[in-house]
Design brief:
By secondary structure, the protein is an alpha/beta fold. The chain is built from nine helices and four strands, in the order αααβαααβαβαβα. Helix 1 crosses helix 2. The termini are far apart. Bound molecules: N1-cyclic inosine 5'-diphosphoribose (N1C).
């Protein structure tokens, strides 16, 4: 039996809310709090669930705005340590495998907020407090859909909290590793606070050996934006095989958190 597991599923655009959403979210929440010892005891998974569903139930699924999650975000308490935040764009799989294997950094999905919602889909409907299990708008179908607004809100929050040295993992195999329309390019980078962030390490993951993506027009764009925000940074092209090797053998010498 071949099981296709589509994690960042834009493939299931026509489907509705994930089955057993409530059970999945509450179980992920409880399991996370159990596993991570330094979680503030103020977190209550039932209250978190209530806050989450109140953000979008009863609303037209194309009119759920980023701010609709403001209240919910405050129900989730977690300190993000400095020097640990990893941002990514079009490198979701490798970035998450990397943080899991090395524990060098943490992505939004390694926080309680991102962990609970990772890979799930949800929407409600107007004039009813029910979930819609038949059909939810796709990521690009309308701008203000519940899932996209959630990731924009959660990403803004994650970027606002970042401090010290942060890392950004971009994809060197595409024309624009830095894309101003992506969540990284349109939300997170705008929230980087130069008072709190001391350094931005940009790592472009290349699958071919030419390794020159840091010189591309797209990366020059990113450099200008960081300069304008008075943020110090460097950019390095890294061979994909180096990261994969590091994921397979995290304690090896070559895997020094990819500096
Ligand atoms: O649009 P992107 O990349 O630049 O977004 C990635 C950026 C990361 O740094 C994350 O902190 O924004 C955050 N983020 C997620 O954490 C996340 N988890 C799952 C953004 N999107 C996230 N997803 C799903 O991935 C989301 O449903 C959407 O479809 C993609 C966006 O990924 P991208 O285009 O590779």
């Amino acid at each position: 039996v071949v099981v296709m597991y589509v994690k960042y599923g834009v493939d299931d655009d026509t489907k509705g809310t994930t089955k057993n959403l409530k059970t999945i979210v509450i179980e992920r929440c409880m399991e996370y709090i159990r596993a991570v010892s330094q979680m503030p005891s103020s977190n209550n998974c039932d209250a978190i669930w209530e806050g989450f569903q109140n953000s979008f139930l009863g609303k037209d699924p194309c009119k759920v705005h980023v701010e609709d999650y403001d209240q919910f975000i405050t129900t989730v308490q977690q300190d993000i340590p400095c020097n640990k935040s990893l941002f990514w764009s079009k490198t979701g799989q490798i970035a998450h495998d990397f943080t899991k294997a090395t524990k060098c950094f943490m992505t939004l999905e390694d926080t309680l907020l991102g962990h609970m919602m990772d890979g799930l889909k949800w929407c409600g409907q107007q004039h009813s407090k029910e979930f819609n299990y038949t059909s939810c708008p796709g990521w690009n179908e309308c701008e203000f859909n519940p899932v996209r607004s959630f990731w924009r809100r959660a990403s803004a929050h994650f970027a606002e909290l970042a401090c010290g040295n942060v890392m950004v993992m971009l994809n060197g195999s595409i024309d624009s590793p830095f894309n101003k329309q992506s969540i990284f390019g349109s939300v997170e980078i705008k929230k980087f606070d130069p008072e709190k962030i001391s350094y931005v390490s940009i790592r472009v993951i290349d699958s071919l050996q030419d390794r020159t993506s840091c010189n591309s027009i797209s990366l020059q764009d990113l450099g200008r934006i960081l300069n304008n925000s008075r943020l110090d940074f460097d950019c390095k092209d890294i061979d994909k095989s180096e990261i994969l090797q590091c994921i397979n053998d995290p304690i090896s010498q070559s895997c020094d958190c990819v500096n």
